[in-house]
Amino acid sequence: MDALLEWLSQTALARWMQNAIWAFPIAEIVHIFGISVLVGAAALFDLRLLGVGRRAMSVTFAVRFLLRTARVGFVIAVSSGALLFLSNAADFVANRAFQVKMLLLAAALANVLIFHLGIYRSVARWDLNVPTPLAARLAALFSLAIWLAIIAAGRLIAYV
Ligand code: HEM
């Protein structure tokens, strides 16, 4: 692991992130933009699963519109996050808040997979103007809680 981290820190991109004075702040600004698009769209989708707007917006439309937007935010957050990570990989790997954040990120992605491979397959029965099944509402509550926890862990990286 140490050899990999040492190798990462010697790459041209890592050196650029370490030496270019604006690289880290710009990557962090882009990171926060990606997070706001991802978590904003995901939270709106979770609210729809909890029944908000169920007479006006079908769940399948919300998946097409909001989850596609969240995916774009996710790609921006992960790619800018990887740049931030490269700037000081060894320290971030040892950082407790960063470790917790990566575990929470894995749990958030597992929740998305379980939802899409599970309850979402029966969406035709609860697509519009009917209450969503308990499993979908639990997935939404878990998602809201876990993205909040990821943001908290991300913010705490600089403090631990
Ligand atoms: C995709 C979901 C993600 C979310 C919601 C998220 C959230 C956050 C938040 C809220 C911060 C604090 C920003 C600040 O206040 O300045 C942060 C910082 C950070 N994130 Fe992420 N992040 C995500 C993914 C990633 C990934 C995949 C990586 C690395 C591979 C990463 C690496 C970092 C690093 C290194 C920092 C610390 C920057 C510093 O020292 O201030 N993030 N993240």
TrEMBL record:
The chain crosses the membrane at residues 20-45, 65-86, 98-117, 138-158. It comes from the Bacteria. Keywords: Membrane, Transmembrane, Transmembrane helix. This is DUF2214 domain-containing protein.
